[in-house]
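hi! just following up on the protien thing from before. the input was this:
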Amino acid sequence: MQKLASFEIDTGTDIESCFLYLSDMSNFNNWFPEVIEIVGKNKEPIGVGKQYIETVKIPLIGFKKIMLTVQHYEKYSLFSTEGNLSPLLPCMEIRLSNIGNGKTKINWVFYSRNSSWLFKLVAPIFKRVMNKRASVASVKLKTILGSYCSSAELEQGS
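and the predicted 3d structure came back as:
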């Protein structure tokens, strides 16, 4: 696999809340740019094998529907998906770790599963696009999880 983009953030939100938010793919379009919508394809609970239909905006192409399948689901630590978009063959991985005092470190990585020599020629274009999106996503996600933490504290205080 070829890494195309990544980010790491620390948040004041507990690992359980972070994982539940991040593994619920219907939230993905709230924080990741150019993802228009993600809906569950099947009624299965979130876990390995769960499938989603993602509508994403692709430069010079427009809107495209992609089938995503959950590949790894380790509660409170790892969540990954693979998509069927060719030639990109995307793989997204989210790792979480507890950094103490109710805080969580989130590592997000976006890979391509395409190892062909032809794809390697165009990979810098994908890297540029995905790094821009990842940069925006890291800020949005940190903000969302920060407000999520604040609203949870407010609910507990009532």
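Residues 150-158 have pLDDT under 50 and may be disordered.
The two ends are 48 Å apart (CA to CA).
cheers
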